[in-house]
Amino acid sequence: MLSSKNVALFAVVFCAVQLSACASIIKGSTAAINVTSPPITGANCILSSGQGSWQVTTPASVTVERSKEDIQVRCTKEGYQDATAIIPSNFEGWTVGNLVFGGIIGVGVDAATGAMNDYPNAFQVPMTPLNQVMLTPPPGTPSGAPLQKQQ
What CATH number corresponds to the domain at position 38? Predict the structure, then answer.
């Protein structure tokens, strides 16, 4: 017959094994990111990291592999300046559960699958029209004087 000490030990070990790789179980090894390009739609964007490359037309949702690497984004559209941005990779809080319940094995699983990292659910890459001209007064111009195109 099992003593209450053995039952308690078994329960702790069982829970630790079941909860190891908490972030992998809770969040998985992929992340969905909604990419937009305000103030327009229809920008062609390439997202790239060491995990791969993804091409989308905004607005779009793209599923990427989780990684500790940031994702580089480049968006283009005729009539607009090319835009670049970086989608940051952030530490996933569920990984802390491994330190408590799963120990080094759970942390190792999350690190190997990329699940210990996460990306934002939504990301904007602002686009600027090519014909957007700033009007500024020349140096020394009194206020209220007519503005001229900045060269």
Answer: 2.60.40
